[in-house]
Amino acid sequence: MLKNNLTFITIMRYLLVILFVLIIPNISAVIISEIMYSPNFDENYNEWVEIYNEGSDVNLSNWSLCGKDILEGYIDHNEAEALKNEGGLILTAGSYAIITDGGSGTEVYSNFDVSGLALHVDAASLCGRLSNTGKEISLEDNQESLIDSVAYSPDWGAQDNNNSLQFDGEWCEAISTPGNENNCGIEEIQEEITETESPEIVEDSNEILEEVISNEIEVSEEIEEDVKKELTGLSIEEDKPENIELSIIKLNPKDIKTEENKEYLGIESYAMYGFVSFCILLTILFIFRKNKFNKNEFN
N or C: more exposed end of the chain, with fewer CB within 10 A? Predict the structure, then answer.
């Protein structure tokens, strides 16, 4: 009996280790962070999608965008479709990657200031082309599990102005930043500063006073001498416009992009699958152990 219990406990330990190994690596924090769907350049070669890794290092081998495999590097359309920037498929923690067209290549690296890991899809275009009327973009891992998805709309902006759609806690339109921190928050602050009226400079009060005194003397010659002296002796302290310091608060998209996007990561679904698998295995082992115990009693 004791031997059976020890065997059961040993098996359970092994199962827990296996479940831990299978589930934990699949819990990733990679999100779709920027979309260029309407560039000012030829749309056939200048669309791109940016992804951002909020968690630990992730191997993107066998990952896919809209069902098409993600491959390392980019294909340069301007140089006989040469494969460049083969930096591997490891997306390190806190870093960005730019995914471009496959097929005959891209012109993104010639027309945009791009940084980050270079990737492309095993297809002629991204998601069958990023339509100006809207599109759903999906990112899947090597288990074909949905990691993130975005269904953008032209109502969000970034159409025909070379801006991009960026995620900073929520989606917004801003100047494109491929492979760099998004800047929606900075753009909003700059717009507020532009719209704020500049302070009016107050004319020197001493000059105004002298003009008033001169006019008064011309209008009335009967002003007494002591009043004239009193008026001409007046001096009002010069009003100097206060210096207005405007400080731009730079919002850190790495902090913004954490809470509201967790619903896209599928972490809860992984945990649920693991728990269900564990319960099934536990039930099977319990039945097996019970049957064996009953046989021992009859014997």
Answer: C
> Which DSSP letter does residue 141 get?
-
Instruction: Report the pLDDT averaged over residues 50-64.
Output: 97
pLDDT of residue 176: 95
> What proportion of the chain, given as a percentage, has pLDDT over 70?
58
Indicate the domain borders of the chain: 28-184+253-264
- Strand ranges, E, within the chain: 30-36, 48-53, 58-59, 64-65, 68-72, 74-76, 82-84, 90-91, 96-100, 117-121, 135-140, 146-152, 163-167, 171-175
> What is the Cα–Cα distance from 151 to 229, expressed in whole angstroms?
79
Task: Give the distance, in angstroms, between the CA of residue 239 and the centroid of all CA atoms in the same chain.
Answer: 47
Tens digit of pLDDT for each residue in 235-282?
Answer: 444 444 555 554 444 444 444 444 444 444 455 555 666 777 777 888
24, with CB counted inside 10 A (0-12, 13-18, 19+), is exposed
The CATH class that applies to domain 28-184+253-264 reads mainly beta
Length of the chain, please? 299
Amino acid code (one letter) for 237: E
